[in-house]
Amino acid sequence: MSALASPVATAVMRPASPHAGASAATRLELLKSRPRRPGEASFFYWDAHFRNDAVKVLPGEFFVHDEDILVMTTLGSCIAACLWDRDRRIGGMNHFLLPDAGGSGDASGRYGGFAMDLLIGELVKRGATRSTLEAKVFGGGAVIGGMNTINVGERNTAFVLDYLRTERITVVSKDVLDVYPRKVCFLPASGKAMVKRLASANTEAIAAQERAAAVRPVPAGSAGGSVDLF
After folding, report:
1. Average pLDDT across the chain, whole number
2. pTM over 0.85
């Protein structure tokens, strides 16, 4: 695995306790059964690699929690911002495709401004404070062609960093730009984030997912410190 441009630490997740399977099933059932907010991720599963409950955040979605459920997503030119309140120990992730709707009036989590406002608003509703939020930012790779004459990944990256600077939310770590798709995992209670740069063979599938998400309608009511390699 190639090294990242910024310093990172390598971490190994410890196996869960022998009783983790039973408790995981219970928590997953509760997560699956609770009402979902518009745009909130709803694809819950048991992650056998990390031996933990998990939720996948798809393009245009977000997820906020105060327990260390594994929040994961895969990114090409998209951005995932992981925000964490270091005092309340609550965090969340979003996944957006473009900085803005280009004047179309489409207000959804597919676009950066709405996605960031939605994530911060949900964190505040759950007790977080803007002044104690910190951010980890991922994605913006140059892996998708034909969507725009301006590099989408660069635009997304510039947008999110400018947004966080304007909101005075400190970016404590980031892995952005370059040409790699990425898999990102985030544990919202601890603020721990992990990123894996994926092989080029994964590029086309992720690019196709992003193209499809960029054009499909969004159904109403649909669903701290270092960055680690894994």
Report:
1. 80
2. no
Q: What percent of the chain has pLDDT over 70?
A: 69
Contact of 60 with 213, CB cutoff 8 Å: yes
Cα of 159 vs its chain's centroid, Å = 16
Render pLDDT for 26-75 as a digit per residue (tens, 0 to 9). Answer: 889 999 999 999 999 999 999 999 999 999 999 999 999 999 999 999 99
Q: How many angstroms separate the CA atoms of 35 and 68, rounded?
A: 20
Residue with tokens 């995992």: 185
State residue 6 phi and psi, 5-degree precision. Answer: -100, 155
Distance CA 101, CA 109 (A): 10
Query: 3-state DSSP call for residue 26?
Result: helix
Nearest-angstrom CA–CA distance, 84 and 79: 16
Contact 97, 215 (CB under 8 A): no
Question: What are the chain's domains?
Answer: 40-216+223-229 (3.30.1330.200)
Q: How many CB atoms lie within 10 A of CB 28?
A: 17
Closest by Cα among 60, 146, 143 to 106: 60
Q: Please name the residue that has the structure tokens 């509760």.
A: 30
Are 58 and 80 in contact, with CB atoms under 8 Å apart?
no
pLDDT above 50: residue 4: no
Contact of 31 with 69, CB cutoff 8 Å: yes
